[in-house]
Design a protein that fits this description.
By secondary structure, the chain is mainly alpha-helical. It is built from 13 helices and 5 strands.
């Protein structure tokens, strides 16, 4: 069975982009893959974040992954910092990656721009992400479009390591959805919907109720020519709405466009479809909120299973580079 790995930062509230671009694929992959899903709390430290907020959001993120439809009987669900092999392998990979290739990462350039000081962790973030993936011998990594470049780096680092030290890592493939890989901010369709950029009207939270979803979709920015067609470059706001309705109803965005003449009618149906798509997620979240013990159990079992696999991969990599195995007994 093929192995799947993916992760999400607990840096804010999950939004529609996370659900459409990532979690829906994660849920689907559970049916026929060995799936590992991780709340990547170490990644959240690459930018300013309050410690108590991080702790709370990490737990909430795990709970909301279950609400999104992950099944702990099938998937291994865990918190990145609970598995010590992630930072350990990162060091070996930092000694494999080059400054030049990290400098080319567009997310680093975008996030570092205008900051007085940039954390070293923000620069090396893609190497930690490579370690996350490679530790689990993942064949497939379902992600949104924004992570494609990081995935390419993980592949290059894995290949370089394998060439230098012998076959050690599985070289992973990115799985980016054909539609919905880049959900745009409803107010600023020139940028992706994001949890780290404040845009209350432009961002639909995964757990937003019907009224909020309807209001935000109604106010979504489109264009003034009134022409109904799917043209992501020329008409990004409209294309975003068409893509969302396409994802929610299992059709192609251009086919969706052919069924409408007025933007108002389209917006009404987009809102209705999103409310229905997210309804089971909201219902599961409400049930889980009453049972924090269940989430703790999932994370504890998940960390144990993840560590079992990750520790073997780390030992293989450490041995390949020539680190002397420790014989110290640990209690
Ligand atoms: N707008 C989006 N459209 C489609 N997919 C998206 N993803 C994120 N935003 C969109 C995908 O969601 C997964 C988890 O995201 P993450 O939290 O690990 O990545 P991120 O890029 O940090 O997400 P955010 O929410 O946009 O936060 P910021 O703004 O801080 O970067 C990933 O698979 C991602 O592709």
């Amino acid at each position: 069975m093929q192995r799947v790995f993916s992760g999400v930062q607990p840096s804010g509230d999950f939004h529609l982009g996370n659900y459409v671009g990532a979690f829906r694929q994660w849920v689907a992959d559970q049916a026929d893959h060995d799936t590992f899903y991780c709340v990547v709390d170490l990644h959240a430290l690459t930018e300013e974040i309050d410690p108590a907020y991080l702790r709370g959001k990490t737990f909430e993120a795990a709970r909301n992954l279950l609400a999104a439809g992950l099944d702990p009987k099938v998937s291994t669900i865990f918190v990145q910092s609970h598995v010590p092999d992630h930072p350990r392998l990162t060091w070996l990979l930092e000694c494999t990656a080059s400054m030049g290739e990290l400098r080319r990462m567009t997310q680093f350039k975008a996030k570092g721009r205008g900051q007085e000081t940039v954390r070293v962790g923000l620069f090396t973030y893609p190497v930690l992400m490579a370690a996350d993936i490679l530790l689990y011998d993942a064949d497939r990594v379902p992600v949104g479009e924004d992570q494609r470049q990081h995935l390419e780096l993980a592949r290059e680092v894995a290949q370089r390591f394998n060439t230098r030290y012998g076959e050690t890592f599985v070289v992973p493939e990115a799985a980016v959805p054909r539609v919905g890989a880049r959900v745009l901010d409803l107010q600023h369709p020139d940028r992706k919907m994001s949890k780290s950029v404040e845009s209350p009207l432009g961002t639909i939270a995964m757990l937003d109720g019907p009224e909020d979803i309807e209001r935000k979709v109604r106010k979504a920015v489109t264009d003034t020519d009134g022409e109904m067609r799917y043209a992501p470059d020329e008409k990004p706001g409209l294309a975003n709405l068409l893509a969302l309705l396409a994802v929610a109803t299992g059709r192609r965005p251009d086919v969706v466009a052919a069924g409408y003449t007025r933007y108002g009618d389209l917006k009404r149906d987009v809102a209705e479809a999103l409310v229905e798509m997210l309804r089971p997620v909201r219902e599961r979240a409400a049930a889980l909120a009453a049972d924090p013990g269940a989430v703790e159990e999932v994370l504890s079992a998940g960390a144990a299973r993840a560590h079992e696999i990750a520790s073997v991969t780390y030992a293989r990599a450490a041995s390949a580079v020539g680190l002397l195995p420790s014989t110290a007994r640990r209690s």
